[in-house]
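Listing S7. Sequence submitted for prediction.
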Amino acid sequence: MRVARLHGPLVMQVDEMPMPQIGPREVLVKVAHCGVCGTDVDAYVGKQPRGWTITYPFRMGHELSGVVVEAGAEVPTVKAGDAVVADGRLPCGYCYYCRRGLWSACQNAGYFSGGLAQYAAYPFANLVKVPAGITLEEAAFAEPLACVVNGQAKVDVAPGAVAVVIGDGPIGLMHAQMLRHRGAYTVMVGLLDHRLAMAEQLGVNLALNPKKQDVLAAVREVSDGRGADVVVNAAGSVNVLKQSIDLAARRGHVLYFAATLAPEVTLDLDLIHYKELRLVGSYDSTIAQFEDALALIRAGVVQVKPLISHRFGLDQVQEGFEIARRQEGLKVQVAHEA
């Protein structure tokens, strides 16, 4: 089978590798679609995302959907022909967090990214069936949307709250749709006008470009001067994290969603103290949140199809990563049928 691997910074190459052999509790999946995420791009350009150990050649691709080709003899959940999405985490099953069902916090977890390959093998417990009414290209958003669901669970959103999302990429646009569904007046802050236009198309109440508008003044204007009740930091930047705290109203919630990859961050802790802010981090998701994500897509609460701006075949994966690196369009997907 063909597998796209990172052979060094900015060098993606399609290699021939043996087909996976599955065990009795594993499933062979024919990959259909795989999204390219911001962390993939960090690795592509030579950065070392926290929690990743990169040795070349390096496999990526964790936003995938596909169809079951073969199921092991002891697999009770899926069968050949089922549409599925895959969670790449390989939890130990016995640590403090695993014993409590908190798989994403496993102290001994491994990870497998099988999306940039024609086929991939996963333990059956890592797969979630795709319900009827969702296309495979939509289903490939289950992993990033599950992470959004996890983050949203950490902030309170009262009806009529003013919620600001900083970061106009696919993650930010999914956060904005979730916040709107929860009853918030939503504000999107970003630097790319074509992405801000998409935010407005998806129902955001106010889209702001800080190069053209005073974001703090605009947020205060729509919040009776208090600031944002909820701020989602969906762009990996130290300055964005600081801006999030500045924008937050008293007793506001700030969701630190996108990692800065900075070794140290200096914040004005007195602002957090005097404003009584809740600053909370969010990382990864649970397998149950994959199911939640698919349900949200199926119900039309979160529209993901408009976020796909580029589709490439596996042989064009380098071009796809370059498009993502330059932030052209929105979501790049590798479509294995292409």
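Caption to Listing S7: primary sequence and predicted structure tokens for the chain studied. The mean pLDDT is 95. The first helix runs from residue 38 to 44.
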